[in-house]
Design a protein that fits this description.
Strands 1, 2, 3, 4, 5, 6, 7 and 8 form an 8-stranded mixed sheet that branches. The chain starts with a helix and ends in a 17-residue tail after the last strand. α1 runs parallel beside α6. It has a single domain, classed as Rossmann fold, CATH 3.40.50. The chain is of the alpha/beta class. It is built from 11 helices and 8 strands. Helix content is 33%, strand content 21%.
Length: 285
């Protein structure tokens, strides 16, 4: 599972299946899609409750997030917001409630079924300033210096080249603009088995990197004023662990120092980029 193309195809296949189901169906079926295995799935045990947030639309909530980035994103009326990995549109519609009629929200997702569902939801809500584009978030179909705010909810884990995503986020944000991203990070090493299990990659677990590495990627991309807005530990129930690990392996995992954590991070693109990236030998291009 180390080929970027294979990983992307795996994720696309899994999330295309999820797009065809309701939140309740995703919660009661393994891997978020039709399957014969039992227990709650990895996707859903990470999700936070959106139902009390203004702009919430149940048709757009598939229970796939691991935080509430829109709650912390410091959006304001008139802003242009991008939602990376927009799914059925949940975060995009909440963002639209904040930015209002004068703002604009753009959702980007590389799964055609998710884009179709999000567009249908937007049409039902009669939002003419919410757009959904098909595309990879590591190569966004967006011009540079476009957005005031970028949000994303438990998506970067699914992308093999996270460095490239942060570089793209930097490119499309306006100078002085910022992001608020919820994602899964690690402290300690995952069981080796999980790195080879498709469901755990598509469920954001085996695609996670060490917390410190994640923060270093953000710094390397040029962002400043990085702050941790929220953090919570993800506890995977035994009935899920039992699908992948033996009883002895489960005990070893629980006694170890591995910690799976949902974090929400804020960072700003400097108003002036002083890295001189275009100069020969700069090393930051």
């Amino acid at each position: 599972m180390n080929n970027e193309t294979q990983i992307k195809e795996l994720v696309k296949e899994k999330y295309a299946a999820i797009a065809e189901q309701s939140k309740d169906q995703n919660s009661s079926s393994c891997c978020g899609a039709t399957s014969s295995c039992c227990g709650d799935e990895v996707y859903n045990i990470m999700a936070d409750d959106y139902t009390k947030m203004e702009g919430y639309n149940p048709d757009a909530d598939l229970g796939l997030g691991c935080g509430l980035p829109t709650e912390f994103a410091k959006m304001k009326a008139g802003d242009t917001v991008i939602d990376l990995g927009s799914g059925a549109g949940n975060d995009a519609f909440i963002a639209r409630r904040v930015v209002g009629d004068q703002g604009k929200v753009l959702g980007i997702d590389f799964t055609e079924a998710m884009i179709s569902r999000a567009r249908a939801n937007a049409e039902k809500l009669q939002y003419n300033n919410v757009e959904f584009r098909l595309g990879d978030i590591d190569s966004m179909p967006v011009t540079a210096n476009y957005a005031d705010v970028i949000v994303s909810n438990c998506v970067l884990n699914l992308v093999p080249n996270k460095h490239k995503v942060f570089s793209e986020i930097y490119r499309v944000l306006k100078p002085g603009a910022h992001f608020s991203i919820s994602d899964i990070v690690l402290e300690g090493a995952l069981p080796a088995k999980w790195r080879d299990v498709a469901e755990f990659y598509a469920g954001c677990v085996s695609g996670a990197v060490q917390k410190q590495v994640y923060l270093e990627m953000i710094t390397d991309a040029g962002f400043k004023n990085i702050s941790l807005q929220k953090e919570k530990e993800i506890i995977i129930p035994d009935d899920i662990l039992g699908n992948y690990l033996s009883t002895e392996e489960i005990a070893e995992y629980k006694q170890g120092k591995t910690k799976i954590t949902s974090i929400t991070l804020y960072a700003e693109k400097p108003a002036k980029d002083e890295r001189k990236c275009c100069e020969p030998g700069s090393g930051c291009c």
